[in-house]
Amino acid sequence: MKLQKFNIADAKLVKSPGQGADIYVGNLVDERHGGPITIGYGRYAPNQTLTETMAVDDVMIVLQGHLVVSTSDGTVTAGPGEIVYMPKGTAVTITTEGETALTAYVTYPHWAELHED
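^ thats the sequence. predicted structure below, dont judge the formating
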């Protein structure tokens, strides 16, 4: 892989697999590009909830808005410039409260191949 720079306009946002919520994701780097990680953007509409058990280690960087992330260990609220780490195997609930949130994410290993139909 070569040096690359991305912004949100580069991402083709699609509905998050397996979710009924108004949440969209767009991978920019994944297994198709030969890298060991997945990098992308996520967009959460206001008042949405995503609940799942993490199939991969996931690092989420909040760029705009706020997200509430809950696990059996507790709850954190993250805003612009803050990072949330969600380890593989952790059951998480991610919620937006009244505003849109934009995130960047990095996962290891690739998450998309684990969600293919």
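The first strand starts at residue 14 and ends at 15.
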